[in-house]
């Protein structure tokens, strides 16, 4: 049956295809010794001498149509730097949408210009650079054509923009030391460009504009040629920091905090980096958003610490949803408290077709927690045009106790199925060994097939986590199960409906869990979507019908003194979700779900409002409420979070984040200033405030005030 389904899927989405490359598909650089001022004016003589490309084509809304606004790009270079010029002409620049200015802004709702550069020219990995008419900067390390998307990478580069009556213009400066590239006097790199005109919902791409290919599909890019005798200036990068501050504890005592440490980065080869860290400090990291857990499974918190985010894709292996062999938040965090790092070493990057990730960290003893060593090894080999195989191992060692996990995986990726369709096949297996356990039934595996294309999306997977599989520096949402999963979604684009970009239908989305040891049914989650749509103006709506089965072998406490008894539970639920285009001055998102919940009923309401006041001020607030009615007890939960952001300019911004929920009953405030006096140097000023609202009484519990300076220099 499954083979018949796959054949039918392919028949539905044979579509039409043409070559998504227009001429020219190579952009040639122009060497200059001229001093270029990064001001966005593009008035140096070298820009007049450089050869521009202008053959941009629509990906959205009218695939394959010519651009409605003239767009040009040129590239010049010196011995040590790459310069990119962008000319975004516009017939009505007063209608440009540019609501943000801060570093690492969310560019999906602003007019912007994006470029991806693959110095490796390997059809897999690249550097993504983004700006908007305000000169905001964002950058991403892209791996495996977008399956790895590390937004926390901060490269050393600069950009400036201007807006005139002709449109908006941008001037980039990227030192070659920011871009790791192979040796050679003559370089050929993959490169592609994208421009978004938000008021028209128009997306332009230079090459590879077929809708199923995002800009991150570097295998569809054009080429950058003409780079000769370029040099990466630095071999050793030193990034020291100094921090200082004070903390008011619950005992009303002020304790001073002073820290000194830093990182040393050494380029073993042009594409392989060695990093040493001493007395690592995370004072500038924004606090987590607290979550209320109404399930019997573990909650997942995203990593925010830059040290662990840089090069993170070199340390990942796909083991399926809710299962990670390496979860960096297991290091240096214990029950919400930071555990100091004595020292650590990392090596990550690429050597020819081999991807390497090595990490070893020694943490200090803290209270009852002994000093602990954490080590991760990940090696993968590129094979074929877009695929790879790899191995991975992790270890945690403390007081003679040892926990090891080792595994292997393969990923087959093609963008040429039936001529131009995407297909990904993945398989992985891992096993744990713990010195004080029996080490039986300690295996986990995962296999999946993903056919993700514009009209048809189809996924199928199987994964198992045996009861004694124990990745102590990994993450498991649940254990001792085998899960079968499949999803089919049809995204038609009806031309006869003038206001709609897509109608979305999902007849099947099933997750089927059985006990790994007994093979008895544990959980079924089935969702189908009779209707969803995306408008041409960016609004979104969907209506879902859900059927949920859950078998409890033992009671679990969902709230204080509210216990769900063991048993088998079938529940039916309905859900609606909607959002407006985020680039508007006022944007909204809302969802509401209602229906059965174990022995009773549950209603979930979540709403978010975004105020884009101007390019300097942005305000976001979110409220989630649960109404739970059970024979064992009724209760209501609330989670509230708000953020105010002010960006004086692209290199000086502040934010105030506040949150409160009914479980902790604490107001948590995080005020943060980030000033970039020079690209590569950061100053942070942070105030964290905890205020208790227990028993309707307000009291200050803890105050932390910290300043931190990180600067960079190269040898």
Shape: globular
Average pLDDT, all residues:
91
Which value, in Å, is the CA radius of gyration?
26 Å
Strand content: over 45%
The tally of beta strands, per DSSP, is: 45
Biggest β-sheet description: 24 strands, antiparallel, barrel
CATH topology-level fold name of the domain at 18-228:
Immunoglobulin-like
Low-confidence stretches: 1-19
Q: Return the structural class.
A: mainly beta
Distance between the termini: 63 Å
What CATH architecture of the domain at 18-228 do you see? Sandwich
CATH class of the domain at 18-228: Mainly Beta
Number of helices: 3
- Helix content bin: under 10%
Secondary-structure map with pairings?
Blueprint: H1 2-12, E1 26-28, E2 30-31, H2 45-49, E3 57-60, E4 71-77, E5 81-89, E6 112-118, E7 126-131, E8 137-143, E9 148-150, E10 158-164, E11 167-175, E12 186-197, E13 202-205, E14 222-228, E15 236-248, E16 254-269, E17 272-278, H3 306-309, E18 323-324, E19 333-334, E20 337-338, E21 341-351, E22 354-363, E23 372-383, E24 387-398, E25 401-417, E26 421-434, E27 443-452, E28 456-465, E29 475-476, E30 481-492, E31 500-515, E32 521-535, E33 540-552, E34 556-559, E35 562-564, E36 567-579, E37 586-597, E38 600-612, E39 617-629, E40 635-649, E41 652-661, E42 666-678, E43 681-692, E44 699-710, E45 713-714
Parallel strand pairs: 1-14, 2-4
Antiparallel strand pairs: 3-13, 4-5, 5-11, 6-7, 6-12, 7-8, 8-9, 10-11, 12-13, 12-14, 15-16, 15-44, 15-45, 16-17, 17-21, 18-29, 19-20, 21-22, 22-23, 23-24, 24-25, 25-26, 26-27, 27-28, 28-30, 30-31, 31-32, 32-33, 33-36, 34-35, 36-37, 37-38, 38-39, 39-40, 40-41, 41-42, 42-43, 43-44
């Amino acid at each position: 049956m499954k083979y018949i389904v796959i054949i039918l899927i392919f028949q539905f989405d044979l579509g039409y295809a043409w070559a998504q490359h227009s001429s020219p598909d190579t952009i040639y650089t122009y060497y200059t010794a001229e001093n270029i001022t990064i001001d966005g004016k593009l008035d140096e003589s070298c820009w007049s001498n450089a050869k521009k490309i202008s053959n941009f084509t629509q990906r959205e809304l009218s695939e394959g149509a010519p651009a409605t606004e003239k767009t040009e790009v040129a590239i010049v270079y010196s011995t040590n730097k790459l310069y990119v010029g962008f000319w975004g002409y516009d017939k009505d620049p007063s209608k440009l949408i540019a609501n943000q200015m801060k570093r690492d802004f969310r560019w999906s709702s602003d007019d912007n210009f994006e470029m991806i550069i693959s110095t490796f020219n390997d059809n897999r990995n690249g550097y993504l650079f983004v700006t908007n008419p305000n000169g905001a900067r964002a950058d991403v390390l892209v791996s495996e054509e977008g399956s790895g998307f590390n937004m926390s990478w901060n490269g050393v580069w600069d950009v400036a923009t201007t807006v005139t009556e002709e449109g908006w213009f941008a001037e980039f400066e990227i030192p070659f030391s920011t871009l790791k590239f192979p040796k050679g006097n003559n370089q050929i790199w993959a490169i592609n460009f994208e421009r978004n005109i938000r008021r028209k919902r128009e997306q332009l791409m230079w090459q590879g504009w077929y809708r199923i290919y995002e800009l991150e599909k570097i295998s569809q890019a054009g080429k950058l040629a003409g780079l000769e005798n370029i040099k990466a200036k630095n071999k050793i990068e030193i990034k020291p920091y100094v921090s200082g501050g004070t903390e008011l504890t619950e005992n009303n005592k002020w304790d001073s905090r002073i820290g000194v440490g830093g990182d040393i980065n050494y380029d073993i080869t042009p594409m392989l980096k060695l990093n040493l860290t001493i007395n690592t400090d995370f004072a500038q990291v924004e606090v987590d958003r607290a979550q209320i857990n109404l399930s019997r499974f573990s909650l997942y918190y995203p990593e925010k610490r830059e040290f662990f985010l840089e090069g993170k894709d070199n340390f990942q292996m796909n083991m399926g949803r809710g299962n990670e062999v390496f979860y960096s938040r297991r290091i240096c965090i214990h029950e919400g408290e930071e555990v100091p790092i004595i020292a650590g070493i990392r090596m990550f990057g690429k050597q020819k077709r081999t991807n390497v990730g090595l990490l070893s960290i020694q943490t200090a003893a803290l209270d009852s927690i002994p000093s602990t060593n954490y080590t991760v090894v990940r090696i993968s080999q590129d094979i074929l045009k877009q695929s790879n195989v790899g191995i991975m191992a992790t270890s945690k060692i403390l007081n003679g106790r040892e926990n090891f996990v080792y595994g292997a995986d393969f990923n087959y990726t093609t963008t040429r199925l039936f001529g131009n369709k995407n297909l990904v096949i993945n398989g992985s297996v891992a096993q744990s060994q713990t010195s004080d356990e029996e080490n039986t039934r300690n295996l986990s595996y995962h296999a999946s097939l993903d056919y993700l294309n514009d009209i048809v999306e189809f996924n199928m997977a199987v994964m198992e986590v045996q009861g004694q599989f124990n990745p102590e520096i990994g993450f498991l949402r649940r254990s001792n199960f085998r899960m079968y999963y499949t999803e089919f979604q049809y995204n038609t684009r009806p031309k006869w409906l003038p206001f709609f970009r897509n109608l979305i239908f999902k007849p099947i989305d099933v997750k089927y869990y059985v006990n790994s040891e007994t093979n008895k049914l544990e959980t079924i989650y089935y969702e189908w979507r009779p209707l969803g749509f995306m408008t041409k103006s960016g609004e979104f709506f969907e209506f879902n019908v859900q059927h949920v089965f859950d078998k409890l072998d033992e009671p679990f406490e969902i709230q204080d003194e509210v216990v769900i008894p063991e048993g088998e539970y079938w529940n039916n639920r309905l859900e609606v979700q909607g959002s407006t285009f985020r680039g508007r001055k006022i944007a909204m998102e809302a969802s509401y779900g209602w229906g059965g919940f174990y022995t009773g009923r549950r209603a979930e309401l979540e709403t978010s409002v975004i105020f884009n006041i101007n390019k300097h001020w942005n305000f976001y607030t979110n409220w989630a409420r649960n109404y739970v009615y059970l024979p064992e007890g009724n209760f209501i939960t609330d989670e509230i979070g708000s953020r105010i952001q002010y960006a004086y300019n692209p290199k000086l911004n502040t934010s105030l984040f506040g949150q409160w929920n009914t479980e902790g009953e604490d107001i948590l405030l995080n005020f943060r200033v980030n000033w970039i006096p020079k690209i590569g140097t950061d100053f942070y000023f942070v105030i964290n405030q905890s205020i208790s609202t227990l028993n309707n009484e307000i009291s200050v519990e803890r105050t932390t005030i910290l300043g931190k300076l990180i600067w960079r220099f190269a040898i």
